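HUMAN:
Could you generate one sequence with tokenized structure?
ASSISTANT:
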Amino acid sequence: MADATDSRPGLDPERASFTTALNAARDQIPLAAGVIADTVIDLVGAIGERVLANLLPDRRIRTKTRMIKLRTPNTRPADRTSTAAPTKPPSTSTSSPTTLDRRATDLTERRCD
């Protein structure tokens, strides 16, 4: 891939597709195509020609500068006394504790009448 992009002056090496090169190499293996038999070695070869034929588009220009995202802390502040809501006084109920216990048992018991 590097030899293929170096063969064209001014071509950005990031435009070469690894997937295209891999598929071209995979297609040549079963046929034993491109086996070097000559004394002259073409560095671009069949794989490089396929890479050059299927170049990726130019990279887009970054419109914004890179920024570090600020994370919100997952922990609560140590001093919460100033931001705590005022507490309510306990409510007074008119029913006695035995009435409440009886109601709870009535709800949990099964009756077969």
